[in-house]
């Protein structure tokens, strides 16, 4: 057995998986919420693991992998945690104030609980460090941008990277020969254009706010709206943050932030929910078209995460109007729910449309081993 503990520590939650990397079997998993002290949460997690499965009592991870949201430009791959790395993650907190401090608290608690094993940080931004300057640079005063580290970083990199590899495996092709668009549609959502296994464009930007319509985030909008609201309605930076990160997207459009509820309401005839679904799919199609153009060809469009894996309705709303791009949908394959990786495009289609369940924890554990065994 080679048990690896994968930790995703938020500001008030702790999600974990213990994976045996000999078989890639999940030995234990769980989610602790309303966490105020990450050390206490860790002790609770260890109790849960031992109580859940008698055979796991006394089993200790040989390494711990940590999800870290923002790695800035400092980290382009998974990295063994040292004091210097902890300092860098701390310094990056200004770019990801909602995420990095919780990630850091989790790492510190884990090091206290497992002081003798390696800890590896896996960054959501790392996969997108391959973006070219033309794609990561915002067209603002370069001195301002440089002084404040303003550029596109991109997120969900662990998921995009995992799904791209699985796509190659599923198609029986070499990743180095493929042009892929991954649509990670969860509560947060992002699109990624992947050429030869490298991210060349992605929809999230300096923060996870840019791009697609999400559960509670607006995605793209005219930045002048922020100045306008601050002038005409005295919005403060914190109020704008709340409006765009927590009160927009599906919840702003419909009052509901779960796609299941929005779909049900639309089916029941609620016009706001129908419009929200149309906006949601329209934005995705906008990115698929743009990424097709940037990639200069396309082998596969892949749906993943909560909405992408489960909503046949959203997939149909995205793909059916894109027949002119060679994208087709086999209605009966699309309607099948659950299951693993599957093709939902029509027979003989030029572009494969796939559903591939993401697995960020497994990808973190794999990248951890790559680093430790390198
Ligand atoms: P994730 O962030 O990947 O866990 O995705 C969470 C989101 O997936 C939820 O907020 C739901 O909106 C969505 N979701 C989960 N199951 C379904 C489903 N059966 N149909 C539509 N959306 C779903």
Automatic annotation (TrEMBL):
ATP binds at residues 15, 184-188, 258-260, 306-310. Keywords: ATP-binding, Cytoplasm, Kinase, Magnesium, Metal-binding, Nucleotide-binding, Transferase. Mg(2+). Can also accept Mn(2+). GO terms for molecular function: acetate kinase activity; ATP binding; magnesium ion binding. The record marks 156, 217 as: Transition state stabilizer. One of its GO terms (biological process) is acetyl-CoA biosynthetic process. Substrate binds at residue 67. It is found in: Cytoplasm. Pathway: Metabolic intermediate biosynthesis; acetyl-CoA biosynthesis; acetyl-CoA from acetate: step 1/2. The keyword Transferase applies. Its cofactor is Mg(2+); Mn(2+). One of its GO terms (cellular component) is cytoplasm. Signal peptide: none annotated. It comes from the Bacteria. Its EC number is 2.7.2.1. Pfam families: Acetate_kinase. It catalyses: acetate + ATP = acetyl phosphate + ADP. The active site is at 124 (proton donor/acceptor). Catalyzes the formation of acetyl phosphate from acetate and ATP. Can also catalyze the reverse reaction. Belongs to the acetokinase family. This is Acetate kinase. The lineage of its organism: Bacteria, Bacillati, Actinomycetota, Actinomycetes, Micrococcales.
